[in-house]
Amino acid sequence: MKYKSQKVAYWFFALSMLLLVLQITYGFIMGFARVGLDNLHDFIPFNTARAVHTNLLVVWLLSGFMGAAYYIIPEEAQRELVSVKLAYVQLISLALVGVVSIVGFHFNIWEGRKFLEIPRPLDYLVVVNVLLFLGLILITLFKGKRRTTTALVLSMGLLFAALLYIPGMLPFDSQVSDSFFRWWVVHLWVEGVWELIMGGILSFLLIKLTGVDREVIEKWLYVIVGLTFLSGVLGTGHHYYYIGVNDIWLIVGGVFSALEPLAFLAMALFAVNMYRKGEKKHPNKLALYWTLGAAIVSFIGAGLLGFAHTLPQTNLYTHGTLVTAMHGHLAFWGAYGMIVFAIISYALPNMTGRKLYDSARGRMAYWFSNIGMIGMTVAFGVAGVAQVYLERKMKLDFMTVQNEISIHFVVLMLCASLFTIGIILYIVDFYKHGKPTDEALEEQN
Amino acid sequence: MLSKKQAKAFFLGGTLVTFLVFIGLTIYSFSKSNDQSNYGDITDSVVRGKEIWETNNCMGCHTILGEGAYYAPELTKVIDRLNEKYNGAGDAVIKSILMSPVPWQPNGRKMVAYSMTDAEASDMVAFFKWIGKIDLNGFGEVVGVNRKISPLSKGYNK
Question: What's the whole-number mean pLDDT along residues B38-61?
């Protein structure tokens, strides 16, 4: 750690881990409901569990990204954060918005729009929170001694993510328009600007962990984020095939969605090549595992599995089935979950001074969580494909099909248990590092 | 070999061009001549139905236009489907489910008991009827009562 103010990142990471545990808990509630064990229905019906599960995903990832920014920006800008106190205010307000929203979901207070269930009055608080965060990051960057490409790409991703929240707040009387502009937020976040954030964090980690020249890494960072936007923006069209808008999107969405895996492939090749080029001297192997893992798993989850059902001819049958859940789980985990774990694994020893670089617990956390998530993806995939054939091709009744495929949710929960063990081990490791301390300032790399 | 400056130009130029094309296509999609949603048929009752749909987070279990949670049936063509199953009594079946004071429990999977008023349930039916008539580029046939056909195949007649 080079600057005292970087310590604030620790608390964002801690909040992130806490929310992840809650997210997994609600995931299990949904899994049990799917196999008929819906005993909590009166208190936590499926739609509540689902809204909590997906919104916590967004909030724990955002908390992780914010923590990453608070750690990376001072180091890149070569100065302290402009205000640590305001960063803590921002942290507390983020936690408050999250908690109030989730409690509200249990009392039927929500917007009922997938991924954007937070009610509109709370949306304004989200805006204030994000503006405060962006203010702190951008002013720090502006006043800094240098403005690196890594910092600019990361900040640009965070700024665009904030701006793209606005279309999700607009009211519409048509379900078609509502759905259309909801994807401006959700798609352009996860297949657009969040990839900028991921690219920025990845670039920072590769510079630190591989020792490859910054200019080389940052040049390829531009190419990757360029490919991301080139394919991802018009790739939004794959959400517009069958929601009631013009069929021009079948062609535009089909072509550009087919290009989307290229950006992820480039990211995976970039990370592996930089690792090969590098000196391999950095002792923090766990951070390296998570970094390379994020680049590779995101290519499989977001790139390949996304492509598996984005061609219009395929999507006609898979649209609105569990095939989407298959892609969604591995994509979010690989692209965003793992990169948050990577930056935590890198930053934690630097902030606390405890160099628990290569513990057996840390390696087990990595393998258990990844094998568990891959197993979950396969279970969702088998259930989804079976659903497509039985329900969409053979025209069986929805619930008849759900009963037929419920066995795959037993497998899913077994794999989810392995995933959870991995996450618990990671959190134990997190706890064992202790709290951040100023003494760690002396122990920078 | 590509320089950093060229890579930056590729990023900024590519982003600008694709965003402009995306916004152009959005305007094109929402022009009156390209409306596939029968926007003019949206009545106050449909809008109220949409509000009820949202405030109860129905998408948290069901799907509509293929979007939602995959836990309960797709409702895009629900009126047609139930009309076929219950000899034209689709509206009445939907209203009875929504007005039920106890959870509707088909095949063991519970739905929240919403105890809606007759007026609220009627608004929901109006919403489903409007949704059911949207031209979905072939998806309506997949989730509806008719045989599906790919919109890109030769036999597809819009």
Answer: 97
Q: Is A321 left (phi over 0), alpha (psi -120 to 50) or beta?
A: beta
Q: How far is it, in rounded angstroms, from Cα B158 to Cα A39?
A: 46
Q: Who's near B67: CB < 8 A, 6+ residues apart?
A: A114, A179, A243, A320, B59
User: A26, exposed or middle or buried, with CB in 10 Å at 0-12, 13-18, 19+?
Assistant: buried
- Report the pLDDT value the prediction gives residue A442, as an integer from 0 to 100: 63
Please check whether residue A360 touches B, CB under 8 A. no
Q: Which CATH class name applies to A4-443?
A: mainly alpha
Does the beta carbon of A314 lie under 8 angstroms from any beta carbon of chain B?
Answer: no
Selected residue of B42, B105, B142 to mutate for chain A interface (largest A Cβ count, 10 A):
B142
Six-digit token string for A290: 């998570």
Minimum distance, in Å, between the CA of residue A219 and any CA atom of chain B: 5
Tens of pLDDT, residue by residue over A230-265, are: 999 999 999 999 999 999 999 999 999 999 999 999
Measure the CA–CA gap between A304 and A154, rounded to whole angstroms: 25
For chain A, what are the domain ranges?
Answer: 4-443
Q: Which residues of chain A neighbour B72 with C-beta distances below 8 Å? A: 46, 398
Residues 6 or more apart whose Cβ sits within 8 Å of residue A235: A187, A191, A253, A256, A257, A259, A260, A310
Strands B67-68 and B63-64, bridge-based pairing = antiparallel
Our CA-based measurement puts residue B100 at a distance from the nearest CA of chain A, in whole angstroms, of 15
Note the pLDDT tens digit of each residue in A124-146: 898 899 999 999 999 999 999 99
The shortest CB-CB distance from A316 to any of B46, B74, B142 is to B142
Share of chain B above pLDDT 90, in %: 81
Rounded to an integer, what distance in angstroms lies between the CA atom of residue A249 and that of residue A259?
A: 15
CB-based contact A312 B107, cutoff 8 Å = no
Q: Could B109 and A50 be called an inter-chain contact, meaning their C-beta atoms sit closer than 8 Å?
A: no
Q: Give yes or no for a contact between A354 and A433, defined as CB atoms under 8 angstroms apart.
A: yes
The residue written with tokens 């991703």 in the block is: A157
